[in-house]
Structure formats: C-alpha cells, structure tokens
C-alpha cells in the first residue's frame, strides 16, 4: 500500500529548542498537545526487525506529528542490556532501520536517523562496538539518511574513540551518557518526566563544538 508523503522539509535544528523522545505512539491530538505545551520536536522509534514493529513509528503517526507542527526525527530501538555488537548485526539493523523509515514511515532523505548505543555486554571489545557502529552508519548513509548516534550508559567507547573512530557527525547525549571529544553534542537529553499522560525524556538542541546541528523534518 502506498504511503502518504510527509509534509515539510529537512532543516537544521535551531539551538535552544526543547523536544522529547517517547516510546509510544502519538495521535495528532496528542502531538498537538505537546506543541501547545511548548515542545518543538519529537523523536520516535524504529524497530530492529520485522518481528518487532508493534508500537513503532508509522506513516500515519508521522503525518500527525508533523501536521501538529512538531519537528520529527527517528531513533532505532536498542537490544536488551548485555547485547553483543558485531559488524554483521550493524549492517542488519542499519539496513532495516533505513528500509522501514523509507517504506513504512516515509521519512525523506537527509533527515537524522539515530543509532541507540548503550549497554552492550560489559566485556565487549571496543573494536566490536566500533565495527557495529560503522556498519550501521554505512547502511543508513547509503540509503540517503544522515546517521546520528545516541550515546547512553555503558557505551564501552571512550570520549576520544566516540569521535575519532566513528564516521558520525551527529551526537545525542543520554542524560547518563559520556562526553564526546572535540565535537561534543547536538542534543542533550534530560531526566524522564510525565507529560500529557506519557513518560517522556525531554531533549534540548544545541550547536556542537564544530558548529554542527541535528537535522529534522519540519514544516
């Protein structure tokens, strides 16, 4: 079935705007209530596999979010804590994220899709994390999207490795995430709170140390 083209264009995110990420679908009315409460953008989830699509972003939901004048980006669900990153898994998950974003959601090329990097097994070698991230980056980039990385707790990589060993130019910091050397972050996540009946993580945009910004779909 054909999906409805999403309105808006891909734009750099202005600094100093507050948005949120949420692990649950939003109706148009719910998205509008967040807009009326002062939120400027929303980050919603993409699945890792075809067996895990329930509750993730759809074309209809994305349409309602953007029509409510919330800017939109997407992040892919991470596996359970203790997962094992590999290059092959990075290619698999990155390819599915890009295909789902294109064919199920209808996100346009050029928007940020975020890798969620947190809590692989504590014994994971840094080289395996790097290989996973690089393979994921390549799959998403080759599909026309701009890969970003959400850096959470237990990411394994050092501040310098996060910057110098990865191809990403867009970083989003979890409320409990480490620093990224040189570049720093474009989105800062705050601690979870309840708003409009949802448990959300508030997020604030900024320009990173090299002048980079997040890239989102907005009217």
From TrEMBL:
Database matches in Gene3D superfamilies: Glycosidases (3.20.20.80)
SUPFAM superfamilies given in the database record: (Trans)glycosidases (SSF51445)
Residues in Rv2525c-like glycoside hydrolase-like domain copies: 33-203
Source domain of life: Bacteria
Coiled-coil regions listed in the entry: none
Database matches in InterPro entries: GH, Rv2525c-like_Glyco_Hydro-like
Pfam families the record matches: Rv2525c_GlyHyd-like
Name this protein carries in UniProt: DUF1906 domain-containing protein
Organism encoding this protein: Mucilaginibacter jinjuensis
